[in-house]
Amino acid sequence: MFEVATATYASKREHYADLCEQMRGMLAGEPDLIANAANFSALVFHSLPDFNWAGFYLYDGNELVVGPFQGKPACIRIAIGRGVCGTAAQTRETQLVRDVHAFAGHIACDAASNSEIVVPLVRKDGSLLGVWDVDSPLVARFDDEDRAGMEALCAVFMEAVDSAAR
């Protein structure tokens, strides 16, 4: 059984570094994408504060489709280029939105969400796997340290995806 660490950290950077190590251990040797995505979502959701949704939207070749997540029921399909998730998928750039109500075209799957960070998930061959999406009920919950930490976590996830594809 895998346990979520309950340590206290001197900094957000240190917390993310520890989560990356936990994630490497959790994903090691498991090739199943859905199993890994489900555990990834649970670990992040239960290890960091002030989230109301954390999960994956997977690209089906046409649009983003909800995948494993933690939180309330979510929008099922998101078009590429629509909302924060669709924008991250289209631009292949992390979207850090301090106030979702100020983001033109934001899709409100949960009215309680006020800030969001979305990291695109791109395979080594350049193809889009999907996006990692985290919402918070707090305005300005995410900052540049969260961007760096979430991108590092997603890099660990994508390393596992790419190694399973070999």
Detailed description of the structure:
The protein has 166 residues and is of the alpha+beta class. The chain has a single domain (12-164), classed as GAF domain (Beta-Lactamase, 2-Layer Sandwich), CATH 3.30.450. Helices cover 37% and strands 23% of the residues. The protein contains 4 helices and 6 strands; from the N terminus they run H-H-E-E-E-H-E-E-E-H. It has helices at 12-27, 33-47, 83-91, 144-164, and strands spanning 53-59, 63-71, 77-79, 95-97, 115-122, 128-136. A 6-stranded antiparallel beta sheet has the order 3-2-1-6-5-4, with helices on both faces. The longest helix has 21 residues, at 144-164. It is globular. The chain starts with 11 loop residues before the first helix and ends with a helix.
Map the helices and strands.
Elements: H1 12-27, H2 33-47, E1 53-59, E2 63-71, E3 77-79, H3 83-91, E4 95-97, E5 115-122, E6 128-136, H4 144-164
